[in-house]
Specification:
Layout: H1 26-31, H2 48-54, H3 68-91
Length: 92
């Protein structure tokens, strides 16, 4: 514990205090606020149809968060259709 009893507490910096050492300037932070790829690696499932649908998930890396829903719904629809076809093929 420190003399102040605030060990590990980081004070909030307001506009009058400036920025913390090593922190990007406000203009730079805004410029860097765009989508950043997560770099998630997709493992093959062993089914080429399912793998082809899952590749679409990589598109979300290039889009703003509010556009991710469209990608996820598209992937969900593609997986549902592919898995339904696989079930139908197994019933034949």
């Amino acid at each position: 514990m420190t003399e102040t009893g605030l060990e590990g507490v980081v004070p909030a910096l307001g506009p009058e205090a400036g920025t913390a050492a090593g922190a990007p300037a406000p203009a730079q932070a805004v410029a860097d606020a765009g989508p950043r790829p997560l770099g998630v690696v997709l493992d093959a499932t062993g089914n080429t149809e399912v793998d082809a649908v899952l590749v679409r998930l990589q598109d979300a890396d290039l889009l703003p968060t509010e556009d991710h829903v469209e990608v996820y719904e598209d992937v969900h629809r593609g997986l549902r259709d592919t898995l339904t076809r696989l079930d139908d093929d197994n019933r034949s």
